Q: What sequence folds into this?
C-alpha cells in the first residue's frame, strides 16, 4: 500500500516544493511595483532632463569651462540612469550614482558661477534636476536615506542659489524660498507614494505567502489523515487476520501459519510507504479475484467456495483494481467471521463486459451501521474507502436476517 506523506511548511523540503509552486511569488508584487516605478521614473526624468539640458546648453555657450564640467557630471549619469530604469538592470546603482553626482554639482555650483552675472528672473538649469534627483533617491535608497535626500537637495539648492545671487533683496529671497518649498512638497509626495506602494506590495506578498502556507498546512493535515486511515486499514486487515488464525490454530501447521501471517502483517506495516509489495498493475482475469478471495478466506481457517458467474465477454480487470476488490471482500469475510461466527457465509462473483460485482453475505444478527464508532475502520476504510479509491462503489445492507456487502466496479466507458 503506497502512502504519500507531506511535511510541515517549515520543513526545507516543503519550502523547496513551495518555491517551485509559487515561482517566486513571495515578492511577486514587490518586483512588479519596483519595475513600474522604474519605468515611470525613466519617462519623467527624460522629460525634466531634456528641459534642463536645453537650458544648460545656453549656459555652456555663454560661460564655458565649469558649466561644461558640471553638465557632464550631471547629464551623463542621468542618461545612464534613464536607460537602466527602462531596461531594468542596475537601476538602483545608477540612480544612486546620479543622486550623488547631483549633490556634487550643487556643492560646486557657487564656485562654478563665481564672478558670473546671475539671471534673477529665471531658475538655473540645476533647478529642473532637483525633483529628478529626489525621485532617483527613492529608487536607490532605503527610507531613512530617502528622507535625508528629500530634505537635503532642496535646502542645498536654496543655499547655493542665494549664494550665487549674493543675498538679493527680500522679494528675490521669497522666490527662492518658494522654489525650495515647492521642491520639498514634490519630494514629500514622491516619497509618500513610493512608501505607500511598497508597503501595499509587501502586504500583498505577505498575504499570498500566508495563503500558500495555509494551503500547505491543510494539505499536510489531509495527507496525514489519509495516511492514518491507510495504515489503520492495513493494521486492521493484517492484524485481525493474524489474530483469527492464531485463535483457531490447533495444530503445529496452523500455529506456523498464524506466525507467518503475523510476520507478514509487521512487514507490510514496515513497508507502508512502498508499493513494491503490491505487485504489477497488469490486467488479470476476473476469476483471479475469486481465487484471491478464497485464498484469503483459507488463511482465516474458513473453507470457502466462491460462486463465480463470469461472462465470456468480460474483459480483464486492472491488477490494482483486482487487489483492492479482493482485499475489500476479504475484510467483509473477516467481519462476518468475527461478528457473525461465519453463519451462512457465502461469496458470489459476477463479471461481464460492464464490470465486476462481488457479494459477501452472512446469516448473522446484523448490525446498526450508524452505531459503529467513528474510530472503527473495518468498514469505512478497509471496504468503502478502498473500493472508492479504484472508482468503485459499495452497498451494505444489514438487518436481523443477516448482512450483505455488495462491491461493484465498472469498466471505464
A:
Amino acid at each position: 500500500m503506497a502512502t504519500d506523506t507531506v511535511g510541515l511548511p517549515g520543513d526545507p523540503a516543503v519550502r523547496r516544493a513551495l518555491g517551485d509552486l509559487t515561482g517566486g511569488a513571495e515578492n511577486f508584487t514587490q518586483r512588479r511595483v519596483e519595475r513600474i516605478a522604474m519605468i515611470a521614473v525613466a519617462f519623467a526624468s527624460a522629460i525634466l532632463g531634456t528641459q534642463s539640458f536645453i537650458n544648460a546648453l545656453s549656459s555652456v555657450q555663454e560661460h564655458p569651462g565649469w558649466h561644461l564640467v558640471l553638465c557632464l557630471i550631471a547629464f551623463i549619469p542621468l542618461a545612464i540612469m534613464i536607460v537602466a530604469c527602462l531596461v531594468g538592470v542596475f537601476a538602483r546603482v545608477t540612480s544612486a550614482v546620479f543622486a550623488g553626482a547631483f549633490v556634487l554639482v550643487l556643492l560646486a555650483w557657487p564656485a562654478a558661477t563665481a564672478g558670473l552675472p546671475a539671471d534673477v528672473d529665471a531658475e538655473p538649469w540645476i533647478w529642473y534636476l532637483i525633483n529628478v534627483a529626489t525621485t532617483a533617491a527613492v529608487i536607490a535608497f532605503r527610507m531613512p536615506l530617502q528622507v535625508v535626500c528629500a530634505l537635503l537637495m532642496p535646502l542645498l539648492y536654496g543655499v547655493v542659489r542665494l549664494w550665487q545671487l549674493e543675498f538679493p533683496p527680500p522679494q528675490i529671497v521669497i522666490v527662492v524660498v518658494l522654489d525650495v518649498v515647492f521642491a520639498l512638497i514634490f519630494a514629500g509626495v514622491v516619497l509618500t507614494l513610493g512608501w505607500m506602494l511598497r508597503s501595499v506590495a509587501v502586504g500583498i506578498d505577505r498575504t499570498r505567502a500566508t495563503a500558500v502556507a495555509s494551503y500547505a498546512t491543510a494539505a499536510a493535515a489531509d495527507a496525514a489523515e489519509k495516511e492514518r486511515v491507510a495504515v489503520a486499514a492495513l493494521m486492521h486487515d493484517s492484524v485481525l487476520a493474524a489474530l483469527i488464525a492464531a485463535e483457531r490454530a490447533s495444530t503445529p501447521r496452523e500455529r506456523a501459519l498464524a506466525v507467518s501471517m503475523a510476520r507478514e502483517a509487521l512487514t507490510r506495516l514496515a513497508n507502508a510507504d512502498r508499493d513494491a509489495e503490491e505487485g504489477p498493475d497488469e490486467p488479470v482475469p476476473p476469476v483471479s479475484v475469486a481465487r484471491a478471495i478464497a485464498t484469503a478466506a483459507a488463511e482465516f481457517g474458513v473453507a470457502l467456495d466462491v460462486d463465480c458467474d463470469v461472462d465470456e465477454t468480460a474483459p480483464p480487470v486492472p491488477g490494482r483494481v483486482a487487489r483492492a476488490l479482493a482485499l475489500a471482500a476479504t475484510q467483509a469475510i473477516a467481519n462476518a467471521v468475527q461478528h457473525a461466527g461465519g453463519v451462512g457465509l457465502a461469496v458470489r462473483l459476477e463479471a461481464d463486459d460492464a464490470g465486476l460485482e462481488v457479494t459477501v453475505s452472512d446469516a448473522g444478527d446484523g448490525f446498526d451501521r450508524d452505531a459503529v464508532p467513528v474510530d472503527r475502520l473495518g468498514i469505512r476504510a478497509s471496504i468503502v474507502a478502498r473500493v472508492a479509491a479504484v472508482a468503485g462503489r459499495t452497498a451494505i445492507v444489514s438487518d436481523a436476517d443477516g448482512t450483505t456487502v455488495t462491491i461493484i466496479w465498472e469498466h471505464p466507458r
Q: What stands out?
A: The two ends are 27 Å apart (CA to CA). Strands lie at 307-310, 346-351, 355-362, 393-399, 402-410. The chain has two domains: 12-210, 281-410.
